[in-house]
Design brief:
The chain is mainly α. It has two domains: 117 residues, no CATH class; 86 residues, no CATH class. The chain is built from nine helices and no strands. It is globular and about 50 Å long.
């Protein structure tokens, strides 16, 4: 699979095509890897380890991963991007591209010795980690909105597997939209200032990436900001029998 850019606004929906497809495509071959020092290499390595670990718990390659495990895989690229407070899309893309080249090296049982180094390097990606939303005014709303929007796009192509969560995430972002407008206004950012607004959302995504696994963070967001009404996904067109 050739490397692609997944982090631009126009390309957001393609995240799921890689991340979910990647978790299904793990093979049983590979040479024993070592743990790298560079953060991009570390994040990509640990994403592959997380995918291998998660896939080892299901019986069939056709079985979707639990959302918590899928979001953990996604989080490693987010964490690398969040090493820049303004969120580095270059870092995130580098992780995604490197994951593709590492998948044949770190599969089979070769990933097992890397579990402990990954836990030490990225404690924020631990599934059991507690989540506390930012306390500063507007920060929790911004982080929840940015992450909810991102995960809706990242998982959107796989709505059959994650439909219930996608409905919740849609309701969350819908509820927070007017709040985000108020936050932007309070920060002196006008409605037409697209570059500045995007920068604020990127900062919020960087904040959210460090809070915990995305699905767990969004569970806390949904508890804090419950959607007012259920948001339904568009119905799929019915295919007539031939």
């Amino acid at each position: 699979m050739r490397g692609q850019q997944y982090w631009g606004d126009a390309d957001m929906p393609n995240h799921s095509v890689f991340f979910v497809g990647f978790s299904l495509a793990l093979s049983a071959c590979g040479s024993k890897p070592g743990f790298p020092e560079n953060v991009i290499e570390q994040a990509a390595t640990c994403a592959v380890v997380a995918a291998s670990d998660a896939r080892s718990t299901v019986k069939s390659l056709d079985t979707p991963l639990p959302l918590a495990r899928q979001s953990q895989i996604i989080q490693y690229a987010l964490i690398a991007g969040a090493r820049d407070p303004g969120f580095s899309r270059d870092n995130a893309n580098a992780v995604v591209n490197r994951m593709q080249s590492l998948q044949e090296r770190i599969t089979g049982d070769k990933w097992v010795p890397l579990v402990a180094p990954c836990k030490a390097a990225f404690p924020e990606a631990e599934l059991g980690r507690g989540v506390a939303l930012p306390a500063a005014p507007g920060e929790a709303e911004m982080a929840c909105y940015a992450l909810g929007d991102f995960m809706s796009r990242a998982l959107g192509a796989y709505e059959d597997a994650y439909r219930a969560q996608l409905i919740q995430y849609g309701g969350l972002t819908r509820k927070l939209e007017p709040v985000i407008e108020t936050v932007m206004t309070d920060r002196g950012i006008k409605a037409g200032a697209d570059k500045e607004r995007r920068a604020e959302k990127n900062k919020a995504l960087a904040t959210a990436a460090k809070l915990g696994t995305p699905s767990k963070v969004l569970d806390v967001c949904l508890e804090r900001f419950p959607p007012d009404t259920e948001v339904k996904l568009p119905e799929k067109p019915k295919v007539s029998a031939l």
